[in-house]
């Protein structure tokens, strides 16, 4: 019997390439099948697959995969309504993945989907900040009583330098103080927002995009040498401004209507909270005392004594002022 000798490499020729070994198992499946499989997995399984090889890395970042996980989790383990930074169709895969991961675990989110932010501070000092649900708008209250906002989408490190608006504060509410008051005093500013009232009669869709909310701002002014403070309370309706030429993409927020304004006196205010027609604020003295006011009924009023405004007092309350206000509204 004759034998077949091995063909030397030199005889193959320069234009012929040896066949590469074919992928086997999971890696041999088409992308469409891989996506279907990943949609049935849990979030940690997908992250583990991502770290195995380049072939599985790309489908593990698919928007379809993470949208399916979001839809599944929102039915069982996520609070509803879920406030998104923009409509679901406008959210990127990284944004949806970030929402899912933050809702399911306390793990350290991979740096690839965490945005660090760089801000320019307004001319006056910032005393308080408040993140609007949805995670895009950051409010900043200043010592002159003004309120500014930042667009965190423009401030993310991945976009810095790509927009002249990146990290820049935008004026939402001008200072209510006169030039002399602002120069002689540093005001304390407290911020609270109510977005749940706007969603009570909304559709049953579990995904919500915040289109408007009520903003309560308390500005405390205590002139030098005077022991009592004057607190001015402002309630504004704030709307999200959209770009009609870019599929309704949000471009900013704007305070279009002041719903209520009144003044009250107290020694110290530690916190405020707004829900529906009620505005609550905690007093530093007497300690543990919460004052609740119907801000609709006291519009354009000024109180210098307890008889000048209709108030409810709750003493030695446990929990935060927002918790107390929710109990009152619920009739507990």
UniProtKB/TrEMBL annotation:
Q: Which InterPro entries match?
A: F-box-like_dom_sf (IPR036047), F-box_dom (IPR001810), WD40_repeat_dom_sf (IPR036322)
Q: Start and end of every F-box domain? A: 23-69
Q: Which SMART domains match?
A: FBOX (SM00256)
**Looking at the Swiss-Prot or TrEMBL record, what is one Pfam family this protein matches?**
F-box-like
The name of this protein is F-box domain-containing protein
Which organism was this protein described from?
A: Candolleomyces aberdarensis
């Amino acid at each position: 019997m004759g034998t077949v000798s091995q063909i030397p490499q030199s005889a193959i020729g320069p234009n012929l390439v040896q066949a590469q070994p074919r992928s086997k198992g999971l890696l041999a499946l088409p992308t469409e099948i891989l996506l279907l499989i990943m949609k049935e997995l849990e979030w940690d399984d997908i992250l583990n697959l991502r770290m195995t090889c380049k072939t599985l890395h790309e489908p593990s970042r698919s928007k379809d995969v993470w949208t399916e996980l979001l839809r599944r989790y929102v039915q069982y383990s996520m609070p509803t309504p879920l406030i998104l930074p923009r409509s679901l169709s406008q959210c990127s895969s990284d944004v949806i993945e970030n929402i899912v991961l933050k809702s399911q675990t306390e793990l350290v989110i991979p740096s690839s989907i965490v945005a660090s932010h760089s801000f320019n501070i307004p001319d006056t000092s910032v005393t308080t900040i408040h993140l609007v649900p949805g995670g895009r708008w950051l409010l900043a209250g200043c010592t002159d009583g003004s309120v500014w906002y930042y667009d965190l989408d423009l401030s993310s490190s991945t976009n810095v330098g790509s927009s002249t608006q990146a990290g820049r504060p935008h004026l939402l509410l001008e200072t209510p103080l006169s030039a002399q008051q602002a120069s002689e005093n540093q005001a304390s500013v407290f911020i609270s927002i109510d977005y749940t009232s706007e969603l009570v009669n909304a559709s049953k869709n579990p995904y919500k995009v915040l289109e408007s909310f009520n903003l309560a701002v308390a500005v405390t002014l205590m002139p030098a040498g005077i022991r009592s403070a004057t607190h001015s309370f402002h309630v504004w309706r704030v709307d999200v401004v959209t770009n009609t030429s870019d599929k309704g993409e949000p471009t900013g927020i704007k305070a279009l209507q002041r719903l209520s304004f009144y003044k009250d006196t107290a020694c110290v205010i530690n916190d405020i909270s707004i829900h529906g027609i009620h505005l609550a604020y905690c007093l530093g003295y007497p300690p543990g005392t919460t004052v609740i006011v119907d801000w609709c009924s006291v519009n354009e009023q000024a109180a210098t004594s307890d008889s000048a405004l209709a108030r409810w007092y709750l003493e030695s309350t446990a929990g935060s002022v927002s918790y107390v206000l929710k109990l009152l509204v619920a009739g507990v």
